[in-house]
Amino acid sequence: MVKRGSDSHFPQRAPLAASGLPRRREEARAKCESDPRFGGASDASSEGDVNLSPQRQAWQAAHVGLQSRALLDRDAEAFLHQSLSTPCLEALVAAEGIWLTDAQGRRYVDFHGNNVHQVGYRHPRVVAAVREALDTLPFSPRRFTNRYAVDLAERLRALAPDPLGKVLFAPGGTLAIGMALKLARVATGRHKTISLWDSFHGASLDAISVGGEAVFRKGIGPLLPGSEHAPPPDPRACAFGCGGRCSLRCADYVAYMLDKEEDVAAVIVETVRCTDVQVPPRDYYRILREACDRHGTLLVLDEVPIALGRTGRMFAFQHYDVVPDVVVLGKGLGGAVYPMAAVIARRDLDVAADGALGHYTHEKSSVGCAAALATLDVIADEALCERSARLGARALARLEALKARRALVGDVRGLGLLLGVELVRADGTPAREEAERVMYECLSRGLSFKVGQGNVLTLSPPLVIAEPDLDAALDVLDAALGVVDGSAAP
Ligand SMILES: Cc1ncc(COP(=O)(O)O)c(C=O)c1O
Predict the structure, then answer these.
(1) Which one of 26, 241, 250, 479 has the largest count of C-beta atoms within 10 Å of its C-beta?
(2) Can you give the pTM of this predicted structure?
(3) Per residue in 278-287, pLDDT tens?
């Protein structure tokens, strides 16, 4: 059960079971603790660390001081609870460059950042651009356009390869995914989709319908009709038993589904699955592209967390020899300041002039577009795509070396500065509890990252990170792994 009160700076709190709501929380925690899949986590762990686990409680007991505790308690009182956010771990007071600072002055290098921080926090050019927009045009009602929005749309059209060339903005990746789904329906006159199990496309009802993670789908009731799913390219847990080397049967199966169904509007895929860094083989998208072309189905690639340099290219699909019909961007587009997302579609898909695909209040946000323009300037001027490719290759080589030394590391993989370290026990089962321990050990040592699919440490550093800082962070990870697998003294 929860360790409490032994630490002098951690105040004794009233028992939680006094009202209905806290009782539900206690029940959820009990379920968590008894769930063998994550040794105290639940299937919520597919998307990230959950807030009910005993390890979370232990970390907080050891690290959270009075000041944060008071704010965390107010947060827990005010917000609806969810397993992936409230109650929260700690309270933040500042973010700058690669660093987060918590309420007790502890600093963390942020290898998580929800993937908004390609250019780091408070990049001076982003801050200046946002200030300028705030001082001149803080909001742009939908009836009007503004120069920030038009400049950004033109910039994205220029960046995307032909035939991509028409743009829509949205205040969030989930909404942009919804717009892409609507566009596919309008353009094809069909409603069905094929997407992949274990993928994440956002948290709304339409996005979870095409998403494939149980934590978002279970207990929610009917989802969008026609949302069909295929097994993902995941060679270490392949539904077709490829045994670690992708045989592309998963891609052939999507083609087979399209042959059978014939009336599918869109195949929607995360180009590289972000939660656990699944990088499909080169031919995967050739097979999908050809099958979609045969059937008049749109290929929609979700690059919300990974476009704009994360993988070493502006768009992740540029690693493959394909161009999608629609690509969806988000997260880092807003420069770690503003919620900005975009759909870039084939020019000839401008087919909904008499309808509405988006129509969101902050659709052409002057402030958000100013942040995005400055972000794209920084990515170009600081050569962040090249930097991501170079530092990513270096980091991956270090992780390979770590795999040779640390028994828990079953696989390492990456593309640019999107890196995954999969932890596996000696008997081949996913090392979920150990992954969570490594994460908290790293947090204690000033490194923050996410754990995806329960046992993959997902490292997503700002692309502006200095090489010594990257090295130091990997040293922290190495030491933490040593503590958890027992091969190094704490
Ligand atoms: C692959 C992917 N698609 C879509 C989304 C949704 O983006 P947002 O949270 O900005 O709505 C996310 C968010 O994590 C994501 O990772």
Answers:
(1) 250
(2) 0.91
(3) 999 999 999 9
